[in-house]
Specification:
About 25% of the residues lie in helices and about 25% in strands. It is α/β, with parallel strands linked by helices and about 450 residues long. The mean pLDDT is about 90.
Length: about 450
């Protein structure tokens, strides 16, 4: 017998039964907060029993508190199917060949409302069914390397990706897209910048902040922008391609070592820190460089693949009253490298000094970054910084803390010699350290003040 109350239980189930309303039924719900209309959606199996979920006309989902419901009426019924359509991806002789390597992100996906799981579109046919515009941009092929949430990406996946990219370059692909969850996308971008050097083609990491069943989804446009960049751009680097402004006017291309996710839910969450993005990309105007210098596309098939990583590396975010056992525990557990995100110009408190000295004697490599994100570690300005340098901590210039963590893991995967570690860490591969930060590389606007509000009104009508 078909379950007409999919996922509902307890008190919410009793409300649906009382008013004889089914899942997938179009319902009018009268509540103490007004009237709502929409389609009753299934619940995930582990959800609460105090809400009815509706998909309303705008395409968004809302939860109705059952204790506010006065009456419900089913006025229609249509069982939606969220299977992604599949069509044969056409081949066009004059278009570039692009390979999409999948890691488990939610690009062009649908939500299984019963379980709460994401159903991904991944084969070329599924992607063409979901985003048919891709066929006008490139000849797409795909390979699923992993099926993991981005928080489960790590050194094993970084190395496998680097090796797979190297093989694709050798085989003559024109560009590579990497579908990736957004939470740790910047970590993977940094890792691939170090592991895949001197690439002759674009390597574009892309994700989506909002799944494809939402009207405000960024998935399709991000994917189209990434495909265009991979197939047509002259910029042959590891890049992150995501929304630029909050609107859908264009996407940004960010260098893999200077990009960071800066908002938990905005589509325009990714920002280049301490610099400007590499370029903008749109289907109308193509790729428009912002930076004057970048690695250009080449016709050769040569890239330097360095898939190394020492997993016993940690990042420590300093906070007031931090105790020395934080450092001691890392050393006792065999960690070979520690990145510290210090306050100000690169500082920690004095009670940590003995633990830092013990770590140095054990041969642990320690580098200082700044938790301000923008700016440089200048440890020679105050006595604290000078003391820390004397105890073996090396300032990492303006490397972002997460980038420094990734780079130290990559460096220690190749050598444990202190001088060589220092040399490799402080020798820039691709702008993880820059000689200076441009004046427009640090922009944080605060709302409410007249000049900012006047500026905003020009763009937000």
């Amino acid at each position: 017998m078909e379950d007409i109350f999919q996922g509902y239980k307890g008190r919410a189930l009793e409300v649906l039964k009382k008013f004889n309303v089914r899942v997938w039924g179009k319902a009018i719900i009268e509540t103490t907060r007004g009237e709502f209309q929409g389609t009753v959606l299934p619940r995930a199996e582990n959800d609460d029993d105090t809400h009815i979920v509706l998909k309303i006309a705008t395409g968004y989902n809302i939860g109705i508190d059952i204790f506010t419901i006065k009456a419900m009426k089913e006025v229609g019924y249509y069982k939606a199917t969220y299977k992604i359509p599949e069509k044969e991806f056409p081949y066009t002789p004059n278009l570039p060949k692009v390979k999409l390597l999948g890691t488990g992100g939610t690009i062009a996906s649908r939500l299984d409302y019963r379980t709460g799981a994401v159903i991904p579109a991944f084969s070329p046919g599924e992607l063409y069914g979901a985003v048919p515009e891709l066929a006008d941009i490139c000849n797409l092929s795909t390979e699923k390397l992993f099926a993991v949430f981005s928080e489960n990406m790590g050194p094993e996946q970084y190395k496998a990706l680097a090796i797979a990219i190297g093989k694709e370059i050798e085989n003559g692909i024109d560009g590579i897209i990497i579908g990736h969850g957004t939470d740790t996308l910047s970590h993977t971008a940094a890792a691939l910048t170090f592991m895949v050097q001197n690439s002759p083609i674009p390597i574009v990491l892309v994700g989506s902040q909002r799944s494809s069943d939402r009207p405000s989804s960024d998935a399709a446009l991000n994917l189209m922008h990434a495909a265009y960049t991979a197939g047509h751009s002259d910029i042959a680097e590891v890049m992150v391609c995501m929304f630029g402004p909050t609107s859908d006017e264009y996407g940004f291309l960010h260098r893999g070592t200077r990009v960071r996710k800066m908002h938990s839910s905005y589509r325009s969450t990714f920002r280049t820190i301490g610099d400007t993005p590499l370029a903008t990309v749109s289907l109308k105007d193509g790729v428009k460089p912002i930076k004057d210098t970048y690695n250009h596309r080449r016709k050769d098939r040569k890239a330097k693949i360095l898939p190394y990583f020492e997993e016993k590396v940690s990042i420590v975010y300093y906070y007031p009253n931090m105790k020395p056992d934080i450092i001691d525990s890392l050393v006792d557990n065999g960690y070979r490298g520690i990145i510290i995100a210090g306050t100000g110009l690169g500082h920690v408190n004095k009670p940590l000094y003995p633990a830092i000295e013990r770590a140095k004697k054990k041969g642990v490599h320690m580098f200082m970054t700044v938790q301000t994100l923008w700016g440089y570690a200048h440890m020679y300005v105050y006595d604290t910084g000078r003391d820390l340098m004397a105890k073996g901590i090396i300032p990492a210039e303006n490397m972002l803390p997460e980038t420094a963590y990734i780079k130290l893991g990559w460096v220690l995967g190749q050598t444990d010699d202190p001088e060589e570690v220092k040399r490799l860490m402080l020798t820039p591969i691709n702008d993880e350290i820059t000689p200076r930060e441009p004046y427009n590389g640090y922009l944080i606007y605060q709302g409410g003040v007249p000049e900012v509000e006047e500026f905003i009104r020009k763009f937000r009508k």
